[in-house]
Amino acid sequence: MNFRIVSIAILAIGLGACTTSGSGYSNNNSGYSSTNCNDCGVVQRISSYTGERRTSGVGAVTGAVIGGVLGNQVGSGDGKTAATVAGAVVGGIAGNAIEKNQNDTWYELTIRMNDGRQAVITQNRLNDIREGSRVIIRDGVARLN
User: Fold this and answer.
1) What are the tens digits of pLDDT across the range 69-86?
2) Shared-domain flag, residues 139 and 111
3) 81 Cα distance to chain centroid
4) Cβ(59)–Cβ(126) under 8 Å?
5) Same domain for 138 and 110?
6) Under 8 Å between Cβ of 142 and 130
7) pLDDT below 70 — which residues of the chain?
8) Where are the beta strands (DSSP E) in 75-140?
9) By residue range, what is the domain housing residue 93?
10) Total domain count for the chain?
């Protein structure tokens, strides 16, 4: 009998520990899902840019690798080594130029975060975000919240 009472008491305590007193999230009509979300904020300004961008180095590295592989296919001995090096250099220069000349439009979003910080995010698409939109930042990208 005592074993049964102790078992029921442990079960009740265990189940009681699983309950929550509130999640901190609200479900209001604005679609804003959290009152204490540090990755959330309101878009203050959107600036649009088109044209030449700064390069990240990805184009140069990719070009150098491809150029090196292609250069390695030419010649033999010291000539093969020289062709590999030359291919890597030319490929790196070409890859950097290709990356730099992509005339895409990108957007700079200035966001006032819930905790008072100001964040500036650069991304290629707005995905229906407008000034005044409530957003959440995930993986460096602002999304509607």
Assistant:
1) 888 888 788 888 888 888
2) yes
3) 39
4) no
5) yes
6) no
7) 1-35, 52-54, 102-103
8) 105-113, 118-123, 134-138
9) 58-100
10) 2
